[in-house]
Amino acid sequence: MSITTLSTTPQQLPRVDDCGSSPVVALDREEAERRAALLKALADPVRLQLLSIISASPNREACVCDMTEAVPVSQPTVSHHLKTLVDAGILTRERRGTWAWFRLDAARLDAIRGFLA
User: Fold this and answer.
1) Contact predicate 94/100, CB 8 Å
2) C-alpha–C-alpha distance, residues 4 and 22, integer Å
């Protein structure tokens, strides 16, 4: 599942006259589901460990070969978690020889920060 764009424009809801409150701002359902899927991709301790390794690495990229020994799971499980992060658009993947390199997608991280703020 690929999450392509996140809207930063909330939906304006009608005035709630019964309570006398001001109009409220809410996400439409589709946008809420996109954001929830993105947050779900982040909501795993191993994925957060992998992101921290990549974030702390030079150029904010790391080889899968360097990450498999840093987390307490098997290499296939590391690959599964990295694929989830790539599918969510949080990481990009580049093949260099026999190894896969992963880089943080700065624009996607900015979008996440924007809707969490």
Assistant:
1) yes
2) 32
Nearest by Cα to 54 from 93, 24, 16: 93
- As given in the structure block, the two tokens for residue 74 are 């098997």
Please tell me the least confidently modeled range out of 9-13, 69-73, 96-100.
9-13
Q: Are the CB atoms for 63 and 99 separated by under 8 Å?
A: yes
What number does CATH give the domain 11-116? 1.10.10.10
Please state, in angstroms and rounded to a whole number, the distance separating the CA atoms of residues 99 and 2: 23
- Per-residue pLDDT tens digits for 62-93: 999 889 999 999 999 999 999 999 999 999 99
Taking CA atoms, 62 is separated from 25, 40, 85, 101, 102, in Å, by 39, 22, 14, 5, 5
Determine the length of the chain.
Answer: 117
* Sequence ranges of the domains in the chain: 11-116
Tens digits of residue pLDDT in 16-28: 455 666 777 788 8
